[in-house]
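Two records follow; treat each independently.
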Amino acid sequence: MRQKVLVIGAGIGGLTSGALLAKHGMEVLVLEASSEFGGSAGKFKRKSYLFPVGATLGMGLEENGIHERIFRYLGKPFPLPPLETVMEMVHPEATYVFMKDRNCHVDGIIRHFPEHEKSIRNFYRELYKTASIIRTLMDPLPVLPPTTIAEWANLFRSVRLQHIRLLPLFNQTLGQRLKHHHLDKLTPFCTMLDGLLIDSMQTGNKHVSYLLAAVALDIYHEGAYYVPGGLYQFADLMAKSIQENGGVLKKRRTVTKLEYSEGIWLATDQRGNTYEATDVVLNVPIHQLPVILEPNMIDKLKKPLRNGLKTPTWTTLTLYMAIDESILDAPLPPFRQISTGSGDSLTEGEHFFVSASRPGDSLRAPDGFQTVTVSTHSQAQLWNTKEQYDARREILTERMLSAISQVIPHFREAIVHLETGAPKGWERYTGRPNGYVGGFPQTLDNALFNSISHRSGLPGVYVCGDHIFPGGGTIGVAASGLHVARSISGSRLV
């Protein structure tokens, strides 16, 4: 049988691997359970309003950014101007502005803490230098943790003399570096950083891997983008590329069983249709694997992956709203964080990300209206019973709307449409058990060499997505999809 690739799940990771392999000349079939491509970066419509499901802020489109490289390889460039002002970060004590220009950004932060100028400048100088060294690894993009001789060889080929400077920082947290710079007691500053980290790294400064935190805090300066319509554009572009290169995509196909016999994988969907493949890409939440695979196959998975199956992550409550601009004093900016809590309390509606369509973005809303998504982290165990579920949804919705109204006068009066995306909704529409989103917190226990490899441990089966190295966000899942495509094709591709 010639090499045939079956991609299960058309999120950004699965579409990345499928598009790259189809472009490489391989036979590719993509099965998607829902009626939309993109997974957590997908979309849905309500009347004349279009809402992004989850992810909203575009990243990786700068020159040699991960998405820019992939789209260029596919022959589908996606040029956009970067945001010079990335977002406002509204905290109880101050409103900070994240600027693309690194010097302007640091100067703006220092204006809030002038007595700590030297320490803050030294901290950012170290952080930006660390990130710049790590970025030199983005071109070869070695796999972590390496599990084959080829992956170890690629890692060693990627290492340069300057990377030795990273070794003392390898097992440090961002919190330890803040302490080194005498900033760990500067609570408002640390909380501002935590607001950025909880959205990208799923944890705060005390526990996050410093090396990953450095990249996460620096990458906005490389380029952050407003994507007209939303990030579903990435998914649609790659789906189109798969079709143009002979691949096939099928929506509303939920794989219920995956079996292996004599070197061939056989997938069965909810309709009883079967599909044969030599290689399988699982772009599904790893907590779904026990539903798809027999227990004897689960036992053969690599240990970190098996452990991950039993590990919960954050869930979320998301508000999807449409607002009448004419009632507000000014249109909403594209991106804004609002925090009412501090320290470890940046969850449960005390910290959330607000994304709004730009005025005139007719793909998302009619003229004079904006669509808005608001999301907060929540602990899955707080949604266990129907009573808890209903109460938690009401509490968090009111908590976030109240906080927004403190920042934006007349916001409630401007709402013309409101619905919630609670954990069961996420489970139903994106296939994420318990509504788990975002992947694992990038702590020292979960990151880098302790992360989950894209190699499942089963012959010809690969995993990608936000639980797999290098982690969440469209950049992370695209990188995991690229690693899968490289392993299946035996080629560097991009």
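The next record belongs to a different protein.
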Amino acid sequence: MDIDRTTVPGTGVLFHLRTPEGAHFALLLETGGTRRLMLYGESDEPIADIALRAEDADRLADLLRGRSVGDRLARVERRLDLLTRERRGTATAHR
């Protein structure tokens, strides 16, 4: 995916994204926290402009990642627990 980043003074940061298949969309991260997802068709003008609150953007990001933040955190906690137990077992074996 090609990503072009542009700072828009007084507004935020604009990312134009193009997939290898040619789909074009943009993400505007406004300084006030709103995210705007813009979809493009054949022209340079967006055919859709969707405003997302920060929590909506987080939920969408979770869907795109395939796992929620809670699921990923639980996985990290399980791995940390396993590493901690392994470390305790190694320390006990060296005594």
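Discussion point: The first strand starts at residue 2 and ends at 8. How would you locate this feature using only the token line?
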